[in-house]
């Protein structure tokens, strides 16, 4: 699984609508509204590296109100949260 962190500049007056449109994209797992230089941060998870092109420039960048993106591809995940989620699939409790 390939994870990309996508920093997104948007039209400020449309942040909620743009965030909802991005969140509706199949490979987008989370969208956060943030402070700072960017307006939104999206977590994108795909099976193949080439799939990033379909999701980021192919879908996210084409949403009206998205002004630009800056994408960072993750090499490794060190978060215990991610590891716990992977091993708890299908378990109760």
UniProtKB/TrEMBL annotation:
The lineage of its organism: Bacteria, Bacillati, Actinomycetota, Actinomycetes, Kitasatosporales. SUPFAM superfamilies: Dimeric alpha+beta barrel. InterPro entries: Dimeric_a/b-barrel (IPR011008), Tscrpt_reg_AsnC/Lrp_C (IPR019887). This is Lrp/AsnC family transcriptional regulator. It comes from the Bacteria. Pfam families: AsnC_trans_reg. Residues 6-76 form the Transcription regulator AsnC/Lrp ligand binding domain. Gene3D superfamilies: 3.30.70.920. PANTHER family: BSR5907 PROTEIN.
